[in-house]
Amino acid sequence: MIRAYKFLMRPTVRQAQALGEMLADHCSLYNGALQERRDAYQHASKTSVRYGQQSAQLKEIRAFDPEHQGRWSFSSQQATLRRLDRAFQAFFRRIESGEAPGYPRFRGVNWFDTVDFPKDGDGCRWDSTPHDPVTRVRFQGVGHVKVNQHRAVVGKVKTVSVKREGRKWFVVLTAEQEQPKPLPTTGSVVGIDLGIANFLADSGGGFVENPRYGRRTAAKLEAAQQALSRFPRRKANRTNNHQRAVEKVTQLHGKVRRQRLDHAHKTALDLVREYDFIAHEDLKIRNMSKAPTPNPDPGTPGSFLPNGAAAKAGLNRSIADAGWGVFLAILNAKAESAGREVIAVDPRNTSRQCPECGHTAKENRPTQENFHCQACGYHAHADTVGALNVLRAGLVRRNANPA
């Protein structure tokens, strides 16, 4: 299996400057390759440029511009071109599926924050000696950078990436390792229902509070964004105060992101340690957070009738703040490592079906929290009912498809 590791780097001033130059030059390569694809399609009878053609030009590009392109790893530049190629593949895939296309865009230096090295030892070298208290990673054109390695890397390092977050630099490793020994079985099963009032409700009647980190930081973030908006948009007029305002907004967003990750890791770890089988709803989060369709006013051309967009925007913020997608990804990864089974089930009517008699009706849920069956009188918390139905559906699906 493949596991990722992320460590904070401690570059010197010159190394940090070189890392910044590496990002800028790879960003320039990305934008240049994008421009070539656009020009070929628009001016050469809609000709498509592929990754292989652009990769073949790298040798000439490096010889023509040795100061900016020739000093960096050839394989990392190929990875940047593959990154652009994947963006175009996703663009064409969205067109075929009828989704919003989202044509690949040019990247500013501040929006291009990662350089990938597809193979350890090719343009980079992870140097972790067991008896050496200082860990270093070497990048071509930068040198040996100190790394704050807070845990051991298990397995063979396959890929290395350098990532910038604000003023901090991180190295991200992927290592191939053997399947870890599974946790001892507990004989327990659980269904979970994700929500907004409560982050999680389980089939045993337990609840995990929704921390709402984004809402807690909303006032500070609004003030920081307002302070940032007072600076001129033109780059030539920006000052050190503008840079500090940008960093303040970045710090607040970074803190919320780390808090969500910490909460997701701890919640998922508790579930994996306690239960052998976990069932959850197969949520289509992207569809759930879509903006409502505009409602044109037939009597007044160019005008629109109310469509609940303001209320839906608030709901979308709450969904994003809960971080369901990140949590489910972490839960599946931890379950795989621990030898647990996780199954996603259809979420339709899970909160409207009575777990006692099976009666399904909208009236069974008179309020957001209460469930009261109109047929048999069963009464419970609506989220707990949803978790019970999710568990039942998960067990049916597991028994229908034995391993």
Tell me about this structure.
The protein has 403 residues and is α+β, with helices and mostly antiparallel strands. The model has no long low-confidence stretch (mean pLDDT 91). It folds into 2 domains: 175 residues, no CATH class; 212 residues, no CATH class. It contains 11 helices and 16 strands. The relative contact order is 0.10.
Number of domains: 2
**In terms of structural class, how would the helical and strand content be classed?**
alpha+beta
Low-confidence region ranges? none
Largest sheet data: 7 strands, antiparallel
What is the multimeric organization of the chains shown? single chain
Shape: globular
Please give the alpha-carbon distance between the first and last residues.
19 Å
Helix percent band: 40-55%
Query: What number is the mean pLDDT?
Result: 91
Strand order of the largest sheet: 2-6-7-1-5-4-3
DSSP helical segment count: 11
Beta-strand residue percentage: 15-25%
Series of secondary-structure elements, N-terminal to C-terminal: EHHHHEEEEEEEEEHHHEHEEHHEEEH
Cα-based radius of gyration, to the nearest Å: 26 Å
DSSP strand count:
16
